[in-house]
Amino acid sequence: MKPLIRRPHRSRRPFAALTAAAFCLAAAWPAAVAVAAESPAADEPVVFTVGLLNEPDSLNPFLGIEAESYEMWGLTYDYMISYKAEDMSPQPGLAESWETSDDGLTWTFHIREGVDWSDGEPLTAEDIAFTYNRILDGGPESASWISYLTSVDTITAPDERTVVLELSEPNAVLPLLPMPILPEHVWSKLSEKDVKSYANEPPNVVGSGPFRMVEGAAGGSTFRFEANPDYWKGAPHVDEVVFRVFQAEDPAIQALKKGEIDFVENISGNQVDALEKEDGITAIMGDSPGFDEIAFNTGSVDLETEQPIGDPNPAVLDPKFRYALGFAIDREAIRDRVYQGAGITGSTIVPPAYPTYHWEPPEDVAFSFDPDRAGQLLDEAGYEMGPDGTRTMPDGSPIGELRLLARADSETSVDVIQFFSEWLADIGIESKVQAVESSKLTNLILEGEFDAFEWGWYVEPDPDSMLSYMTCGQRGNWSDSWYCNEEYDALYLEQHSATDQAARSEAVKRMQEILYLDAPYLVTMYSSIGEAWRSDRFEGFVPQPNPGGIMLVQYGVDNYLNVKPVAGKDTSSSNTNGALIGGAVAGGIALAAVAGALLFRKRDRATADDRE
Amino acid sequence: MNQLGTRYVLGKVAGSLGSLAFMLVVNFFLFRVLPGDPVRTLARNRLVSQQQIDELTRTLGLDQSLPQQFLTYLQNTFTGELGLSFRYRQPVADLILDRLWPTLVLVGTGTLLATMIGLWIGVRSAWNRGSRFDKVSTGSSLTVYAMPEWWLGLMLLAVFSVGVGPLPGIFPTGGLISPGVDPTSLEGVLDQAWHLALPVLTVTLAYLADFSLIMRSSLLDEMGADYLMTARAKGLRDTRVRREHAVPNALLPSVTLVALNLGFVVAGAITIETVFSIPGLGLLTTEALEVPDFPLLQGTFLVFSAAVIAANLVANLLYAVIDPRVRS
Amino acid sequence: MSAGEAVPRLTARQVTRRRRRESARRTWNEFRSHRSGVVGLGILVVFVLVALGAPLLADATGLKVTAATGGVLEAPSAEYWLGTDDNGRSVLTLLIWGARVSLFVGLLATAISMVIGTLVGVASGHFRGWPSSVLFRLTEWFLVIPFLPLAIVMASVLGASLINIVLVIGVTSWPGTALLIRAQTLSIEERPFLERARALGAGHWHQMSRHVLPNVMPMVFANTTLTVAIAILTETTLSFLGLGDPLRVSWGSMLDDAFGAGAITTGAWWFIIPPGICVILVVLSFTLIGRALEEIFNPRLRRGILDETSKPRRRERS
Which of A65, A458, A582 faces B194 most closely, judged by CB atoms? Predict the structure, then answer.
């Protein structure tokens, strides 16, 4: 009966303390909400806040690799040549104009006058030559950028407004030179060793771009940029650009809905669907220059001895077999079921976003979802249906199970491979689905221990690098299908040094045709990227490619210059109110603690009195 | 007793150093068995030549043999040099220091609140065993204990940040501080309090359940002890018995457990940091795993295990203070 | 001594068996008086039945993304009682089949952890000298490795499959059990019957298998139920961090999908609340049973002060 004895002494006051704290919160709540709704003073800076789902890795352009890092260098620095927003073709940047010698071996660029660094020094041709030479000289600076300077012998600045590149053989990738131009008077002080770990973070950043970085550090979660009012293309329409890094998509979307951020990048199709219904928000699935594919092991070999390594199923080594499987894939179903209806069904490795180079397969060879045709092609190639309902090799032995690998970290990849496996079963081919981490998959690919897998590539505006991945020389390196075809390699070299655009396009298209028929890759989808923004607050975005493209994380940073506040709308974020609520919370806790302590003492005394 | 004490303390310290040495070795080899090649991950999707890959391999020090790398690692660690992160190319020590603060604030505040409230609830429900308070608090503690805490975090996020029904979402969806706010100013401090309110609440609730259950059972144990029976039989006032005898005796072991727990809380904040986008050590670790960024992983792992080892040592010493028997 | 004698003669083995049966019945009777334990058992039985009867309750083709019939994130309706997921599959079907995976992982991982923990614990408690201290040190070392990061590393090394998740959890969660069993063994070693056995020349194997093990078994059993709870939570957390088996549906992977598909933002509560509730119920049931058993087998212990069991992490928060 112990409880009964103690019961009279049990005070309700500790609860009173908690109630007091709850009351504090409750009182702060409407007040805080009221403050949040209050409109700001007219002279508040216009801040454009972008939510990212991945953080930039380094603000030093010689070190970083993430797309987000590129975006930030783009705001901080200028490029000699930039990308046109609509079709990503080269357009004047720091170089107002350029010309090529007839043999394609000398490129002369004429540099704009009157561009200053943020510390007041003028930007000259010497800065440009310095940056390129730093890359050309090897060392850590070359790691990311040297490929753009293949066959470039010397880079000189004969005067303050001219940059000259001398080549040993023509390079069709020029004049695209997407390296940010760095100030010589700052970076020349850094040795090769210093550069390896140079952070290039505020307050020591000297740039010439449309914005100046004032806050942020690699791996951090907030990056703040102030507008450069003297920018040579004209001052930006916003005073500040802020990037906030979110670790997951959902919180980022919530932040957008609440107006904490104005733009969110790289979101899923589901989210776009849901956000489209929201007032004041525009959500799009933008075409992005990349593709996803099902790739086959077309013959893994030891590169020294040319002896086969790994254990590809003999069936997938046969181009006819692979091509036939192209008709077993229902790309529309993949788009609707796996990609939530977003994106364009795929065909070749150069996306239609690059019309100069994209090859569209003609009707008679183009893949469609046609299992009968797939079966017919397999029959013709000798893979006939056996008595047990599965197809056999031309010599009558069983094909066995194909090993289909999906990336465990991508739901899309797993789903596509599962669909593929079932479609294969429909045409009499057995398969086994396995999901492995991307890093593990890379190893399996290099060892040749696979039959097929699902992955994708981003394709740069110049398709040269993408095309190179399918050459014999890239086997064991970037080639993930072990594809090797002499005719293809010859065409690759031809287009790489072509000086005539039409001839180059022709070669590139012919290469795509070869790949299409040999089918080392069955391209499933051209990817798209979800983006959403507060259209009640900001406007002026131009998609890339136009139309149908994405708005931010493009090639180039034009939209940070284009974006402007919607007239008459509040564009400040609700930061200041947070402090108020924070104060209310902290105060509430403190108050509750004090009240609790006081009441405790009092109660003990009271209880003691009761007892005595 | 003093001599025995010294010996005990020295023994425990030596044991901790042994554990630390073990961790140092595990630390190095653990991450080398990860699949994936950091050089390839870092160079992924870029136009790179073999020459560039070689350059990167050299820069990262991966061209050395494994024993050589191990020696370099030991040498560096003993001189307090944790190396350069592969991904961020910054000294690992700097990155960890940057990220340590949010984790410490989150975990520290959360644990502190959880300890105070949890112990209070534990004492109350043990003392009033079988009462309605006991039933409700034990029931809800067990329920929260059974919850994945990140799920709890998600629910809190949905209610207090997104808003449910008429309830407006007044807390931010994530992050540590609003952009452009000076973290050292009063506004900055309050702004951080606002950002951390929900994550801290999540940590508090999750650990509160553990601590109140622990405190409840230690006090119940204590209440069964003879001396307490005697004290009560002698007619000592109930409150006094509780305050001067039972609670202090039951409190110390609970605090010991809290200290032990704290070591794990640091590493355990990973999921809560993910849900609330807090740039802490846990997130740094998951990001480093993607590369895999060996030096960074070694660094964070070292911090995590050092935290556990230190907490263990403190707990062991506290233990000895409470119960001299363990010293012999 | 004739065959017709009223009291049958029992062999030693039969006596032992009878004694065991007797003690099991006593335990059960005692257990029945712990109301919360009975409630826990009730909940568990329901989930076990659901897991076993999954093929009867919901067609397994409902798990296939390729065979999904519903729309994306449809709200609950007469056809889909708990709505659909982001692939158009019925959440209820996923939930039913998810019970299998969660229970399977929980039980098997615990079995591994128990075997390792019991072996190491008994051995380090029974033997004297260096083998004991080596094993004890090893246990302590494993105890200081931060569990969640270690599990993450192991999961990425081994690759994402169900059996690997089981291995990861089993291999990382044994030290707590080992310490508990060691403490128990040490106290049993002091008992007279073991000294008698030693004096009679019983070998280590005989001592351990006939005397030590049967006596620590009840504690192992109580600890097991608590470990299952932790193992299930760990599976959920690993899946949430994207380290689960992507080809199988578990409650953890459902929650990961739900979070990834924006169930919170889009208000798809049916996709994120039910799996959470299921996890809570199952974990709660194991915890309740475990607590009841702990009290029955060792009323003195009740995670008290000198109890080595509460020293290792009681619950690996992650």
Answer: A582
